[in-house]
Specification:
Blueprint: H1 2-28, H2 30-34, E1 48-49, E2 56-72, E3 95-112, E4 115-128, E5 131-132, E6 137-145, E7 148-154, E8 181-192, E9 195-202, E10 226-235, E11 238-251, E12 261-275, E13 283-292, H3 306-309, E14 318-329, E15 334-346, E16 357-372, E17 375-388, H4 392-397, E18 404-417
Antiparallel strand pairs: 1-2, 2-3, 2-18, 3-4, 4-5, 4-6, 6-7, 7-8, 8-9, 9-10, 10-11, 11-12, 12-13, 13-14, 14-15, 15-16, 16-17, 17-18
Length: 418
């Protein structure tokens, strides 16, 4: 019995010593007991709070991959590319192409005494037909302080309802009213009842080569910024926007020497997106624009149309464009779009003494399947027809088979957004 009592007392003492040592070690390492602090979600959906701060942030973007082919009846080369593929490595008929694109954006917000302060940055890069874009390029970068916005984003002229979806962006059909991004300072008036008014000054350099490549106009330095304004209306029926812009147009030639004009150009646009009642999300899109001396404001997005030939300094050109389409949801995971657009340019022959695009027409349709959330697979077909100013003899002398060219492109694309 004495031996048993001694054994039990010894075991109890060892247990007490072990427990005391464990407690001492826990006291020396409080993080082991306390654990990691939780990361709380912000009030805005999709945003999370950065630990130890009042900042809410969100990371987004997408990756795209596409494959397609096109046939067009212009026999000359040098990137006419009516089907939207800007690649001189391929011929202009019976073309097969593949490509990929990536975007990455950062959205950071926090509440302050001046209202919500927001910083948004988006970068993107495209690798198409073996032409690598290399580094990411800046697509958006702006700061919002309450009702003020400063930086590069959609032009105030274009910041309203969108246009019919084009699933494969590289096709670049005529009528895309969401092309232009501009560095700007914008103020928003919240009138109420779904009505807002935006006024801005914008840097015209981004209308004159910043977003548009292939320009043949040598732009002069603008002495004043562009003045842009819009009024937006949103309701249960959809949304609408009426925009206007005034621009100092300046240029020193359109493939023509010793030409210099300085005028004031202007542009206006009305765009509407109507929600179709009794559907799973159908939308009808309509937009129309007119410009006189400020064609860059209503760039159609066509690869060899206003975007290549007519930046914002096109002082002697007026024109108009219309686009419309229906986006239909067959189910929550299957949607399609059918749309068409037309653009018409009115040139001053004394100033533009070369062949130019007179009219541009596009029709496109697509079918997009959301396999799982944020993963879309789609197919699309686009038909485009461009007509050139001038006689048949002039077009043939310039190397074209005729003054009218049509193209059709068919492709498929996978898009994973996050």
């Amino acid at each position: 019995m004495k031996a048993l009592r001694t054994l039990l007392l010894g075991s109890a003492g060892a247990a007490m010593l072990f427990t005391a040592g464990t407690v001492a070690q826990a006291a020396d390492a409080p993080e082991a007991v306390k654990g990691r602090e939780p990361v709380w979600r912000c009030d805005t959906a999709g945003f999370i709070e950065y630990p130890g701060s009042d900042l809410c942030f969100k990371i987004g973007g997408y990756a795209k991959a596409w494959i397609g082919g096109a046939d067009e009846d212009w026999t000359t080369g040098e990137g006419i590319d009516e089907y939207g593929v800007r690649d001189d490595l391929h011929t202009t008929d019976n073309t097969f192409f593949m490509g990929a694109q990536g975007r990455l954006n950062f959205d950071i917000r926090n509440a302050t005494e001046f209202g919500v302060v927001r910083a948004f940055i988006e970068m993107w890069a495209t690798d198409n037909n073996g032409n690598s874009g290399g580094n990411f390029t800046l697509r958006h970068a702006f700061i919002q302080i309450g009702n003020w916005l400063m930086g590069k984003t959609w032009s105030t002229f274009r910041s309203g309802p969108g246009t019919p979806e084009q699933h494969i962006e590289v096709f670049a059909a005529v009528g895309d009213q969401r092309t232009v991004r501009a560095v700007q300072i914008r103020y928003t008036f919240n009138v109420g009842n779904g009505v807002t008014i935006n006024v801005a000054i914008e840097d015209p350099a981004f209308m004159q080569g910043g977003d548009f490549e292939g320009s043949h106009i040598i732009d002069s330095r603008n002495e004043v910024p562009d003045f842009v304004a819009n009024i937006q209306i949103k309701g249960s029926w959809g949304s609408a926007q009426l925009s206007g812009a005034v621009h100092q147009a300046s240029g020193t030639g359109f493939l023509a020497p010793n030409v210099n004009r300085r005028e004031v150009g202007w542009a206006t646009m009305l765009s509407v997106a109507i929600d179709v009642p009794g559907t799973m999300g159908d939308v009808i899109y309509l937009a129309g624009a007119y410009a006189d001396g400020h064609m860059g404001a209503i760039d159609t997005g066509a690869p060899y149309s206003w975007s290549d030939n007519l930046p914002g300094g096109s002082v002697s050109i007026s024109g108009w464009a219309v686009v419309g389409g229906w986006e239909h949801y067959w189910s929550q995971t299957l949607r399609s779009t059918i749309a068409a657009s037309h653009a018409n340019n009115d040139y001053d022959a004394d100033f533009h003494n070369v062949l130019n695009i007179d009219t541009a027409t596009s029709v496109w349709a697509n079918l997009v399947w959301t396999i799982v959330p944020q993963l879309d697979l789609g197919v699309e077909v686009v038909w485009t027809q461009n007509k050139i100013t001038g006689t048949q003899a002039q077009c043939i002398a310039a190397g074209f088979a005729s003054c009218t060219a049509s193209a059709i492109a068919v492709g498929a694309q996978a898009t994973r957004s996050f």
